[in-house]
């Protein structure tokens, strides 16, 4: 569950395709969640940009203090190990060829698309509020 907080909105990064691909017959891109290697979300976003794949990575900012007492503001992914890509189902292999992508979330062989409204909600929420993961969630707990 996401918890809005007051303050400056966090950043999000995205890449977009050129309009030439949208003119192809039968081209119907949908959003999918790509599971990445740990801490490789920003790298996947860069690979997508290089290949012209539209992608989205919601980030939030947090102050981090290291053992040597240095502090800095760092941007972390809102959903660790996930990056969102907007592709036609025929482009699945192109995304899976990216070195840091492990798989695209699916049920068997069928890709599970994410409704456009969810991505719009995330973008607007990041711009309007400070959003970060809920601090008291534990793996396996009921939400």
Report on the structure:
By secondary structure, the chain is α+β, with helices and mostly antiparallel strands. It is built from 3 helices and 10 strands. The strands form 3 sheets. Strands 2, 3, 4, 5, 6 and 7 form a 6-stranded antiparallel sheet that branches. Strands 1-10 form a two-stranded antiparallel sheet. It has a two-stranded antiparallel sheet with strand order 8-9. A hairpin with a 2-residue loop joins strand 8 (106-107) and strand 9. The longest helix has 13 residues, at 116-128. It is globular. Mean pLDDT is 85; it is low at 1-10.
Low-confidence stretches: 1-10
Give the biggest beta sheet.
6 strands, antiparallel
How much of the sequence is in beta strands? 35-45%
Helicity level: 10-25%
**In angstroms, what separates the terminal alpha carbons?**
8 Å
Structural class: alpha+beta
> Count the helices. How many?
3
Shape: globular
Helix and strand pattern = EEEHEEEHEEEHE
Mean pLDDT: 85
Number of strands: 10
Computed CA radius of gyration, to the nearest angstrom: 16 Å
